[in-house]
């Protein structure tokens, strides 16, 4: 198998990642803001600056719709996790991102780009916790959940 | 503050997430499953995104001000404390459990699945729960 054949499945993820970076940099260049989704969602609900944040969220949802509708990228399957655990997962994600001050976008994409030590530590921490959680669910409990 | 630049950024961000496969929880959990059938997709997503932000952030921040706003509004916190670590740990456990994080979950709302609706409602509750836990959380 050649290197091109080996890497071909990852061209789309790479393009998606580059697009995420451009989106975040455009928000910084135009409005001077960090594209941290958990913070933006929180801001939409309680303010301040509800307006630009609401427009961002509207764009976010529309962006996914455009990709699936006009670019022929099929809709992914939903999470195979049972609904009660999905609810627990949502609670933990909402709670943890507020306490930790950010999620994959704010700490991971924007914070690392800013070379913020806080964000690098946060990203390593939630990655490690995610790895450990999947390990326990899939390999210790044997996917019993 | 002008809203159309935020709409454009959100649009690109949503397109990026969907294109990257971040809205597919199986790919996210597959990436986190380093001892099992590891799926490397997300390494390319993060690599691509960070390549752009690492090269563009400092040139942008060297400007006196943004193109369409009066000043850069950057996070002021610098300390690495228990809140940062504890919050990130809790977030990571939640992320691993379902494979959803906030952005992809929002994008997936339009896919019309029960799981993403339940996730988003629970996430909202969790965010308000954090405020009760400590009201002085910066936005």
Query: Can you tell me the residue ranges of chain B where pLDDT is under 50 for at least 5 consecutive residues?
Result: none
Count of helical stretches of chain B: 6
How is the biggest beta sheet of chain B arranged?
A: none
User: Average pLDDT across residues of chain A?
Assistant: 94
Assign the structural class of chain A, choosing from mainly alpha, mainly beta, alpha/beta, alpha+beta, or little secondary structure. Answer: mainly alpha
Shape of chain A: globular
SS content category of chain B: mainly alpha
Could you estimate the helical fraction of the residues of chain B in percent? 55-70%
How widely separated are the two ends of chain B?
17 Å
Give an overview in words.
The complex is a heterodimer of chains A (145) and B (139). Chain A has 7 helices and no strands. Chain A has 145 residues and is mainly alpha-helical. Chain A has one domain (3-140). Chain A is globular, with a radius of gyration of 17 Å. Chain B has 139 residues and is mostly helical. Chain B has one domain. The mean pLDDT of chain B is 94. Chains A and B meet through helix 2, helix 3, helix 4, helix 5 and helix 6 of A and helix 1, helix 2, helix 3, helix 4 and helix 5 of B.
């Amino acid at each position: 198998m050649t290197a091109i054949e080996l890497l071909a499945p990852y061209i789309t993820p790479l393009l998606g990642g580059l697009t995420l970076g451009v989106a975040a940099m455009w928000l910084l260049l135009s409005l001077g803001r960090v594209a941290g989704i958990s913070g933006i969602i929180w801001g939409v609900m309680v303010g301040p600056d509800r307006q630009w944040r609401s427009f961002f969220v509207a764009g976010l949802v529309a962006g996914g719709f455009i990709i699936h509708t006009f670019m022929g990228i099929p809709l992914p399957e939903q999470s195979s996790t049972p609904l009660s655990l999905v609810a627990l997962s949502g609670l933990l994600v909402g709670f943890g991102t507020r306490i930790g001050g950010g999620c994959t976008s704010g700490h991971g994409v924007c914070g690392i780009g800013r070379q913020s030590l806080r964000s690098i530590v946060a990203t390593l921490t939630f990655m490690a916790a995610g790895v450990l959680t999947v390990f326990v669910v899939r390999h210790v409990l044997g996917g019993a959940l | 503050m002008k809203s159309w630049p935020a709409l454009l950024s959100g649009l690109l961000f949503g397109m990026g997430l969907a294109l990257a496969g971040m809205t597919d929880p199986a790919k996210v959990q597959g990436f986190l499953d380093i001892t099992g059938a590891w799926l490397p997709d997300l390494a390319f997503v993060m690599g691509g995104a960070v390549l752009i932000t690492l090269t563009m952030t400092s040139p942008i921040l060297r400007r006196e001000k943004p193109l369409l706003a009066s000043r850069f509004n950057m996070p002021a916190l610098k300390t690495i404390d228990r809140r940062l670590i504890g919050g990130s740990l809790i977030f990571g456990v939640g992320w691993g459990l379902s494979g959803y994080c906030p952005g992809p979950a929002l994008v997936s709302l339009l896919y019309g699945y029960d799981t993403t609706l339940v996730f988003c409602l629970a996430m909202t509750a969790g965010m308000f729960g954090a405020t009760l836990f400590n009201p002085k959380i910066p936005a």
